[in-house]
Design brief:
- By secondary structure, the chain is mostly helical.
- It is globular.
- Helix 7 (218-237) packs antiparallel against helix 8.
- Helices cover 65% and strands 2% of the residues.
- It has two domains: 3-65 and 138-215, no CATH class; 216-263, no CATH class.
- The protein has a two-stranded antiparallel sheet.
- Strand 1 (93-95) and strand 2 form a beta hairpin.
- This is Peroxisomal membrane protein PEX16.
- Residues 106-116 have a biased composition (Polar residues).
Length: 264
């Protein structure tokens, strides 16, 4: 990736990290008008950055989060003793004569904090496989797939626009958003030879369709009573589950009112 593309990904990641805090802080300081203003500005900035990545840098299917979190276990440096053993030419492994099993030698055993329980070959294979997956170029998108990804990127803006036109209690913004999400996934489903990260992203988007059960007005009219009844039954009749379901019942109304938790 080029340096400008990396900067775009960094800014996009920062926006996704602070969007909930910005919404709640602005609502506390400037009220509902300030809250919706910051929501529109953040969604507009995210859409512009994503469209630049899609159309200018040909970044393909956009991942969430934009920058893959660092796996510290995979990124652990070699133990100093391992480096000394490599430099001195000592064998790090021992191969059993009859079993042919590979075992780490005692001289090359790392400290407990950096120890892993697989063989050195397994760790090297997993690291090389992960590096290969990270370095895979994005799958080129045709016209149909580019339109589908553009629909997914612009869906938040169209949803906000429809909220401003028809109001928060109308079914039209909910239906419009659902149609755009399903259309985008349907158009992208024809794309073949996706890499592992892109397939995982499409699966994530498919699972997120369940959020429509928690989004107003469907949640207010149909889901709320059934979900709370189910959580209450689990809390009352399943031992130990109440420690999770009762706080969840108290948290759901607050979670449902925050736009970036629910629609972002």
């Amino acid at each position: 990736q080029s340096l400008p593309q990396q900067k775009l990904l960094t800014w996009l990641s920062v926006l996704e990290c602070v969007e909930v805090f910005a919404e709640m802080g602005t609502a506390r300081v400037w009220g509902e008008m300030g809250r919706w203003t910051i929501i529109v500005l953040i969604q507009l900035a995210k859409a512009i950055l994503r469209l630049l990545l899609l159309l200018w840098y040909k970044a393909g299917i956009q991942m969430s989060p934009p920058i893959v979190p660092l796996n510290r276990e995979q990124q652990q440096p070699l133990h100093p003793q391992d480096t000394e053993d490599n430099s001195s030419g000592k064998d790090q492994t021992f191969v059993g004569r009859r079993s042919s099993r590979v075992v780490r030698s005692l001289q090359s055993t790392p400290s407990l904090q950096s120890r892993h329980w697989g063989s050195p070959q397994q760790r090297e294979e997993s690291q090389s496989r992960r590096a290969e997956e990270m370095n895979q170029p994005p799958t080129p998108l045709g016209l149909q797939e580019t339109i589908a990804e553009s629909l997914y990127i612009t869906r938040p803006l169209l949803h906000l626009l429809s909220l401003g036109v028809w109001g928060q209690r109308s079914w039209k913004p909910w239906l419009l958003s659902a149609v755009l999400d399903i259309s985008s996934l349907s158009l992208l489903s024809d794309l073949k030879d996706l890499n592992r990260r892109e397939r995982a992203e499409l699966r994530r988007r498919t699972v997120l369709l369940l959020y429509y059960l928690l989004r107003s007005p469907f949640y207010d009219r149909y889901s709320e009573g059934r979900i709370l009844l189910l959580l209450r039954l689990l809390a009352d009749y399943v031992p130990g589950v109440g420690f999770v379901t009762r706080p969840l019942m108290d948290y759901l109304p607050a979670w449902q009112k925050i736009y970036f938790y629910n629609w972002g």
